[in-house]
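Chain A, query sequence.
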Amino acid sequence: MKSNIKEICVLGLGYIGLPSAALLANRGYRVYGVDVVENVVSTINSGNIHIVEPDLDTFVRSAVQSGALTAHSKPHEADVFIIAVPTPFKAGHVPDLSYVEQAAGSIVPYVKPGNMVILESTSPVGTTERVEDILSSKGISADTVSIAHCPERVLPGKIMIELTENDRIVGGVNQKATDQVAAFYESFVTGEVLKTDARSAELSKLVENSSRDVQIAFANELSMICDKYSIDVWEVIRLANRHPRVNILKPGPGVGGHCIAVDPWFIIDSAPEESALIRSARERNLYKTKWVIEKVKNSCLRFERDKGETPKVACMGLAYKADIDDLRESPALDIVTELQREGVNVMVVEPNIESHSGFSLVSVEEAVKSADIMVFLVNHKEFYRMQAQLRTEVLDFCGVTKG
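Chain A, predicted structure.
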């Protein structure tokens, strides 16, 4: 298959599109990356990256220097078109497919018979068929072009490894598309490539993340129960997980990221009556963030009552998970934003970003030196090394102080 494919056009150069483009460019393909943000295009063409991901800078630099990867503001003719644009939701948690629709429409002048059009963006059931409809309305038939969904399944922090090592799911709008697109992924994926139909592929990704959301909701609810009884939730989980068929996840201040915090709503929106448990879990995880805010505010009130002054509160972490710079749907960011809005004197520590438009960031050392209350929201590796220095009140919502 690889010998028949020379050029690839990747639409969307974010957390999935750029790593995919860089990987394919280093595998011998000529890759045209497309993004609507001019700064993203210029940054990549200079051999640099605009996101933090281990090893990504090396892949991009090598691909750009060799001429195998270039970034553009418009699509380019290619053998394979990969759509990797955002799929957020609008007010009321209604899926916003405008980015996918715009991307599909933008490639119409460039698609030729025999090409592949692959949707990698996590999408509600039926979105791949929507891409097919957009192309069909312009005279591009699924009989001549292979259209399929292959959802990304990577973990931030390990993307460059998991792009090839993880199993991939390929679901075409017809069997020919499934077979041809699967063969393309088999040319560079060492994991197993699993064939199915487009709708099953779409739902499988949503189910993966919804399942995680439900499990995290249980852990978060358990943390609130333990707090009521003044019991250490981490000890309870440690003991319960000694059962051979129990695996309780770790609680946190909520759930963030573009996947787990978003994907369940795609199911809830299309099947509201059938997804009561999924909705309950999603709402529980959202409530946990509000619960954390109230816990911090109550600690501030006690400090003011006992000390007669306003405490300095160090909020440790803004990212949605450990050791990355990704702030999308981050509960930590929501918590800090709300605390600041309500007048809490916050100091913000986020070692994975250089600056933030809403906050003045301080170093770990400055936080330890100046804070009256330490609030751990993300278990970044830098925070584990500072435990011996802690001399103030600590609110640990992510298990940093538990090792």
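The chain has two domains: 2-191, 236-402. The mean pLDDT is 95.
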